[in-house]
Design a protein that fits this description.
Helices cover 30% and strands 25% of the residues. The chain has 11 helices and 21 strands. The protein is globular, with a radius of gyration of 22 Å. It binds adenosine monophosphate and zinc ion (ZN). Adenosine monophosphate binds next to strand 7 and strand 12.
C-alpha cells in the first residue's frame, strides 16, 4: 500500500487490531466525557449510573445508551449540540418525510477531519493530485456534494463541481476537462451511459474516465458490475450518512471485498434489531455507529437502520479496519407483502442478470380486490417488437423473481426512458396499498 499520502495520520490506516482497540478505548472515553455537555446524554448517563471508569475497551460501548433518529427529531434543531453554537460553522439537514427534519452540526475541526476522511478513501482507490475529479451529485444539504468536494480538494485533485443532472453538460465536462474520476449515485450513472449512447459517445475511447465512487443508495453487486462494464471504469462502493458527517464513513479498497469502515473515527456494532444484542460476525444485523471524533454533535450508538454484516477484520490491502458487506437495505425499506419480507435489492439483483433489461426499474405495491400485489416495471435495454420474444422474456423474469422472493409479481417490460429518473437517490418503491387498521 502507498502510505505516503499527505493526509493527517495516514499511519492510522494500517494500525494492528490491538492498536485500533487501544485507540478506540481512548477516543470512546473522550467522547463519553464530551457528551456530558449534551443534556440528553448527561441525563441518560446519570440515570444509568455510568462514569468514564466503566469504559476500558471498545466493547464497553455496549454499556452506553442507544441514540435513534427519533431522538434527533425530538431535540430538533440544536438540542444535541455538544459545543456552543458560535463554535459551529455549518449544518446539514435531512428533510424528514414525517415530522421534523434532522439537523447535524459541524465545527471547523469536524469539517477538516471529514475532508481528510474522504481524501483518505479517494487515495485508497488510487486517485492522486494529477486526477480530475467530477462530482456529479447534488450539492446543498445532501452531504455527497460538499463532502466529496472538500475531500477531493484536500487530496489535491482538480475538482469539477458539476452537481447532479444535465447529462449533456456532464459529458461535455468529462471530455473537455479530461475527467478521470466521478462521484455519483449509481442509478444516475446508468442513465448517463444511455445518454452517451444516444450521443454516440464511447466512454472508453472518448473520455479518460478510470474511477467511480458510487454510493448514497443501496445497489447490488450486479449493478456495480454493469456500471463497470458499461464505462470500462472501476466503481468503488462509498457509504456515508449525514449523522456521521456524510460520505467517508466506509469505502471499498482496490480489493473490492467489502467496505472498510474507519475504526479510528467510529465504533462499529452489528446488532439484532429486535433484541439489540450483538450478532456474530457474518450474520446480518443493524449497523450501529458511535462517532469517536465528532466535536459539534457526537452520537453514541446511533441506530442507522441499515442492514449489513461483518465480512472480516483484515484485508490483503494491509488495512485492518473492519470490512462490512454492501448494505442489504434499510429496515425501513423492507416490504412485507403477504407475510413475506422483501428488499428492493433482491429484485434488482435478479433484474440485472438479464442482459435484455436496462437498469431502471420501479416496484409498485397495490391492493386489488383485497389482495396485495407487486408490480415490477423495468426498462428494456433495446426496443423489442417481437411479441413472442417479449412474452417469453416477461415469463422468464417473472419466474426468476418468484424463485428469489417466493411470490409472483406482475412484470411489465417498458421501453427505455419511460420510467422516472430522480436526480438524487433513486425512488425504487411506491406503496399504494390500503392500510387496514
Ligand atoms: P443521508 O444521510 O441522507 O445521506 O442518507 C444516508 C443513508 O443512505 C444511509 O443510512 C444508507 O441507508 C444510505 N446509503 C448511503 N451510502 C450507501 C451505500 N453505499 N450503499 C447503500 N446504502 C447507502
Ligand atoms: Zn482492503
Amino acid at each position: 500500500m502507498d502510505v505516503k499520502s499527505p493526509y493527517l495520520h495516514p499511519e492510522y490506516e494500517t494500525l494492528s487490531r490491538e492498536e485500533i482497540s487501544k485507540l478506540q478505548t481512548e477516543r470512546l472515553r473522550e467522547t463519553f466525557e464530551h457528551c456530558k455537555n449534551v443534556p440528553f446524554y448527561a441525563q441518560k448517563f446519570k440515570e444509568m449510573n455510568l462514569s468514564v471508569e466503566d469504559i476500558n475497551s471498545p466493547e464497553d460501548v455496549r454499556k452506553l445508551p442507544f441514540t435513534t433518529k427519533q431522538d434527533l427529531r425530538d431535540t430538533y434543531p440544536f438540542g444535541l449540540a455538544a459545543v456552543p453554537l458560535e463554535k459551529c460553522v455549518r449544518l446539514h439537514s435531512s428533510s424528514g418525510t414525517t415530522g421534523n427534519p434532522t439537523v447535524i452540526l459541524h465545527t471547523q475541526r469536524d469539517l477538516d477531519e471529514w475532508a481528510n476522511q474522504v481524501a483518505r478513501n479517494l487515495w485508497m482507490v488510487g486517485l492522486r493530485p494529477s486526477d480530475v475529479f467530477q462530482n456529479s451529485s447534488g450539492y446543498g444539504m445532501f452531504t455527497g456534494g460538499l463532502g466529496f468536494q472538500y475531500g477531493a480538494e484536500r487530496l489535491g485533485m482538480l475538482t469539477v463541481p458539476a452537481a447532479a443532472g444535465n447529462s449533456l453538460r456532464q459529458i461535455k465536462f468529462m471530455k473537455d476537462f479530461g475527467t478521470t474520476a466521478v462521484h455519483a449515485v449509481p442509478s444516475y450513472l446508468t442513465r448517463l451511459y444511455e445518454v452517451m449512447q444516444e450521443q454516440g459517445v464511447d466512454p472508453r475511447k472518448d473520455t479518460k474516465l478510470r474511477v467511480f465512487a458510487i454510493g448514497a443508495e443501496p445497489h447490488s453487486e450486479e449493478q456495480r458490475k454493469r456500471i463497470e462494464d458499461m464505462f470500462g471504469v472501476k466503481a468503488y462502493n462509498s457509504f456515508g450518512m449525514s449523522e456521521m458527517c456524510g460520505p467517508g464513513v466506509g469505502f471499498e479498497c482496490q480489493e473490492q471485498n467489502g467496505l472498510h469502515f474507519w475504526e479510528d473515527y467510529y465504533i462499529v456494532e452489528i446488532v439484532d434489531p429486535d433484541t439489540l444484542e450483538p450478532v456474530p460476525d457474518g450474520e446480518i444485523g443493524e449497523l450501529v455507529l458511535t462517532s469517536l471524533r465528532r466535536e459539534a454533535m457526537p452520537l453514541i450508538r446511533y441506530r442507522t437502520r441499515d442492514l449489513t454484516r461483518v465480512l472480516g477484520r483484515t484485508c490483503p490491502c494491509g488495512r485492518n479496519h473492519v470490512r462490512l458487506d454492501r448494505m442489504k437495505g434499510r429496515s425501513d425499506d423492507m416490504m412485507v407483502l403477504r407475510g413475506v419480507n422483501i428488499f428492493p435489492i433482491q429484485i434488482e439483483k435478479i433484474l440485472m442478470q438479464f442482459s435484455e433489461l436496462a437498469s431502471n426499474y420501479l416496484i409498485t405495491l397495490t391492493t386489488d380486490n383485497d389482495n396485495d400485489n407487486m408490480t415490477v416495471e423495468v426498462e428494456l435495454a433495446e426496443m423489442m417488437d417481437d411479441y413472442a420474444r417479449l412474452q417469453s422474456l416477461t415469463k422468464a423474469v417473472t419466474r426468476a423473481l418468484k424463485d428469489e422472493i417466493l411470490l409472483t409479481p406482475i412484470v411489465k417490460l417498458v421501453s427505455k426512458g419511460s420510467l422516472p429518473v430522480s436526480e438524487g437517490k433513486a425512488v425504487r418503491v411506491v406503496d399504494k396499498r390500503k392500510v387496514y387498521q
